[in-house]
Amino acid sequence: MNEDPYSPPSDKPVDDTMIDPWTAAKPVEPTDAPDLVVEHLRCTRPWVKFCSLAGYITAGFSVAIALFTMRKMLGHFSLLHVLLLGSFYFILAVLFIIPSLRLSRYERSITRLVVSNQIEDLEQAIAHQRTFWKLMGIMILIMLVLYLVTIAISAIVLLSGKV
């Protein structure tokens, strides 16, 4: 074989020992998820399920408190006040249900991964985890903005002397 690197390629068959195994070999697609990753997610699953169920239960209590409080307030307060307080509790319930739904999806994808041990199910579980944390980040940002607005309005009211 010609050792000149500047010579044009030849039509002769190339010896298999000359092929670079890193560039010539077709990459092998793994179909099984790594055991350690699956084990970590399997151990995480009960806590994810617990947090999800706790969110659903809290939302249920919020709705129950809203209904009980609204019923007791009727006749003693204006309908506007009753509806405002009830809507606060219903909004609170929705704020617990939304992340609980995401956690439920994540928990089910972990269950599928543990059963199948396939890389596609691992990818799906990680995708559900990503959407949960993205949602939580957005909710935290909204809460921070609401806190800042509340603090600013409170400071303006206190400094204006209208208390």
TrEMBL record:
- Report which superkingdom the organism of origin falls in: Bacteria
Q: Where do the TM regions start and end?
A: 50-70, 76-98, 138-159
Record bears the keyword Membrane: yes
Any Pfam family from its record, for instance, is DUF5362
UniProt cross-references to InterPro entries, sorted A to Z: DUF5362 (IPR035287)
Keyword Transmembrane helix recorded: yes
What's in the keyword line of the UniProt record?
Membrane, Transmembrane, Transmembrane helix
Question: What's this protein's name?
Answer: DUF4234 domain-containing protein
**What organism does the record attribute this protein to?**
Oceaniferula spumae
